[in-house]
Write a structure and sequence with these properties.
The chain is of the alpha/beta class. The chain is 42% helix and 15% strand. It has a 7-stranded mixed sheet, sandwiched between helices. It binds zinc ion (ZN). The site of zinc ion has 4 residues, from loops. Zinc ion binds next to loops. This is Diacetylchitobiose deacetylase.
Length: 266
């Protein structure tokens, strides 16, 4: 029994080495990151501090926003189209606070992001066009995540990263000059199973500012609850990381996102 355990442990360590999976600095050889978000404020909420650290370090970060954010209001005088336009402006302001110059808008209707082959192919096209070294997406297995756009964005991102290197997948992309692309680093944010932490203690106030730039979402009364919520999340990850404020991510080798019974162990 114990002998078996040891065999597994040794074999597991060897496998991680073979996969060149190293959590000491996942961004070491990364020059470009694609950060995929369900709604226009999710990159800032989930990763604002991390994104600022990356861009300050000379790494290019591009957002892909899956939906138009047009449902995020309790104001019945604001049409979906008007709100979508407001949210685009807010996102551009928020992104620029974090050093992000490009936002790609997929434009699906908020609350209705479909989990289909068509959206998957569109996302593959973006990955092939942008050629990121790393992709970050919401963890679709976050326990109790109630928003379908968040779960679907996570699943679509996993699929797109897995399929973008396959030349026979969406092979007509080649006509548009797009070539298969292998993403080297894949990680989740909004995760309950972080295996990597970014110390954002010095960036917490800027992160809050970047979130608050989404003024249509964070009116004064909403912010009264959201500021303590965001600080509590950062303190939660911070406690695990041994710093004040942190953001938690979960990096996974591609192989562990398919038929692996011990994927949770890393
Ligand atoms: Zn969202």
């Amino acid at each position: 029994m114990f002998r078996d355990m040891d065999d597994f442990k040794i074999s597991f360590e060897r496998l991680l080495k073979e996969l060149e999976f190293d959590l000491s600095n996942p961004f070491e050889d990364v020059e470009k990151v694609l950060c995929i978000e369900p709604h226009p404020d999710d990159c800032a909420i989930g990763l604002g501090g991390t994104i600022k650290k990356l861009t300050e370090g000379g790494i290019e970060v591009v957002y892909v926003c899956m939906t138009d954010g047009s449902m995020g209001t309790l104001d019945d005088n604001l049409s979906p189209h008007e709100l979508a336009m407001i949210r685009r402006k807010e996102e551009e302001e928020s992104a620029s606070l974090l050093g992000v110059k490009k936002v790609i808008w997929m434009g699906y209707r908020d609350t209705e992001l479909p989990y289909t082959g068509e959206v998957r192919r569109e996302l593959v096209k973006i990955i092939r066009a942008e050629k990121p070294d790393a992709v970050l997406a919401p963890d679709p297995w976050l326990p109790y995540e109630g928003h379908p756009d968040h779960r679907v964005t996570g699943f679509l991102s996993i699929d797109a990263v897995a399929f973008s290197p396959l030349p026979n997948f969406a092979s007509t992309d080649g006509v548009a000059g797009l070539k298969p692309h292998q993403v080297d680093v894949f990680g989740f944010y909004y995760t309950a199973r972080p295996n990597y932490f970014v110390d954002i203690t010095d960036l917490m106030e800027l992160k809050l500012k970047a979130v608050r730039a989404h003024r249509s979402q964070f009116t004064d009364d909403v912010w009264e609850k959201w500021e303590p919520f965001l600080r509590t999340v950062a303190l939660y990850y911070g406690k695990k990381a041994g710093v004040k404020y942190a953001e938690g991510l979960r990096f996974m080798p591609g192989l562990f996102l398919h038929i692996t019974p011990f994927a949770e162990l890393i």
